[in-house]
What does this fold into?
Amino acid sequence: MPYIETIFASSDLIDVKVDHGAKTVIIKSSNRTNFAGIDFDGTKVFSLRLVAKFFKERFPSEVESDDFDDGSVDVLSASVKAQKLLQVEPIPYHLIRILNYQLNNNTLNINDDYWKRTEDVEQKELNEEYPLETVETWLTERDSYDVNVYGLPVNV
It folds into this structure.
């Protein structure tokens, strides 16, 4: 018997189905305190499903070092963090506002991993007469910010 897809409900943007596949992401967020007029009471978790891509990765790093006359270099500190790019397909302005609130909460869970918003959320206008915009931001994986302070000298 062939699989028949059943639509249970419909939202502003997408059909709510039993299985969405890889075309959407679910963003779950909660907060320790009340935020933006929402009473979180420490137990509430809010979810938002969006048509989006969330797979492109980067690993920005910073190094601070000190050069010496003998050609050696002391690495004073170095850091690296893991990030993924959240690219949201065109959504209306009220959902951009909701998304921004969600991304600013203390706890942010996407696809069962925890993230922190550490960079700006960028909106891109598609057409000045089109009431939808795309949104993207780099999110930092929680607990992925590794720092090495006062490393050993390295010869160059």
